[in-house]
Amino acid sequence: MKQLIECVPNFSEGRDMTIIRTITDEIEKIEGVRLLDVDPGKATNRTVVTFVGSPEAVSEAAFQAIRKASEVIDMSKHSGAHPRFGGTDVCPLVPVAGITMEETAEYARRLAERVGRELEIPVYCYEDAAFTEERRNLANCRAGEYEGLPKKLEDPHWKPDFGPARFNPRTGAIAIGARDFLVAYNINLNTTSTRRANAVAYDIREKGRPVREGNPITGKIKKDENGNEIWIPGALKACKAIGWFIEEYGIAQVSINLTNISITSVHQAFEVSCQKAMERGLRVTGSELVGLIPKKAMLEAGKYFLRKQQRSVGISEEEIIKIAIKSLGLDDLKPFNPREKIIEYLLEDPRDKKLVSLTAEGFANETASESPAPGGGSVSAYIAVLGVSLGTMVANLSSHKPGWDDRWEEFSGWAEKGQRLKDELFYLVDEDTRAFNRIMDAFGLPKGSDEEKAVRSRAIQDATRYAIEVPFRTMKSAMECFDIIEAMVDKGNPNSVTDAGVGALCTRSAVIGAYLNVKVNGVGFKDKNYLTAVLTEAEALVNHAKEREEVLLKKVLEKISA
């Protein structure tokens, strides 16, 4: 798997777009890096930038951005609502694919060393790149903020990990680290009171609040017999939060950093915030996502709210995300475009023209054209998509059938399985065409010298094997669709039994069509043992598909004839 890391530097400028563009231009100059998001905030006077790419390219882009920020941002003139101590305040590296946290931390330390050496900026390494346990916590590294930095740098205990222990009023300091995916998330409240927003923040954040003597706000913090401060933990693990007032929107917010969304999810943070706000006479009006979010987090949120409504979760990805947006109130302050906020969508290559993105008419026209692809393999996978979609439709209709309210989870489970198979088969629609193109590319390789002939021959055999595997995979996935269709014929809404029957017809055709492609793609393949084993199993699947279709059609006809 290709190694990918994400970098999310926070620059202490959120008002002058000319300065921000000057910095992001440096990122976009680096080959192998893709700028995903630029999110400026006027009240915080801070911009969160997100880009992704190979570790080497991301490290270079991060360095160039930090260098440019040191030239165009003057921290001696900075003010804003967010804690900060440098022009580039923080610069975390985040493992995305094919790379461990330990490897990512090593890249962060190399970047930190280079920034300290070449730019002479004091650097603190935090989170997984930290050299000491105390410095893992960003709040410790940034304590005292910019105004307290001159005194901090004089303290030997807070000597920077890299760079000079010398205060530069223009650049300040920087924290460079490696961490898990962090979601910056704000909860909107129906109040202008920062104090009340802070109260909710203390209720939910893992750190909680100190126990005080007398006045709960200004009283002296209580200590135990060992002299340690006594704190009441908050409701949520892996959650940091503070309250602030956002003049731009005229409301107070609870500003949250979810440092591990596998421990505390976005929807959990939202629900607990709603509960704690209500206990204090407040109401949550919505929420705001700062930067990007993984698709998985949005899907989990959408499914959570659907289950809460006792509705089927076996609907399309697009509809689930729409439910998440509305339930979390992510469009409360401004429009929320998932194509601009979900990291997987931003990583999609706009040049990759997928067959499944075409209209039904467009797909038919492309198939009917003089091009040899898409062909029977892609069409077979698409027929299976239609078959399982019909079964899934019956499951969703059944989950809403009046009088069947206590069975919604049963049908939701079938619909969710149907959506999974639909997505797999959608992938195979395009993958079958890619497999064909791989064969064409292999045949196009040079064949002059003996070495070139050998390379070409190996490439043809490798591509041919893949062209066998893809339709074979289509056959197996299509066979799984029969389970959903059979359950809907037997137990689903009787008014839709013929829809399930048509699904069975589609599925059988898909299996047989994919088998034809397995067989024809195997012509000329040299590994006869492998080919024989595949064809034997494929023929058995064809026979089984015919049997299942026959049984299901008989049941359908009996039900509509009764």
| Radius of gyration from CA coordinates | 29 Å
Structural class: alpha+beta
Fraction in helix: 40-55%
Major sheet: 7 strands, mixed
Number of separate helices: 17
What best-fitting shape do the alpha-carbon axes yield? Answer: globular
Q: What oligomeric state do these chains adopt?
A: single chain
CATH architecture call of the largest domain: Up-down Bundle
- Quote the CATH topology of the largest domain: Four Helix Bundle (Hemerythrin (Met), subunit A)
For the terminal residues, how far apart are their CA atoms? Answer: 56 Å
CATH superfamily of the largest domain: Formiminotetrahydrofolate cyclodeaminase monomer, up-and-down helical bundle
> Class of the largest domain, according to the CATH hierarchy?
Mainly Alpha
What is the strand tally?
13
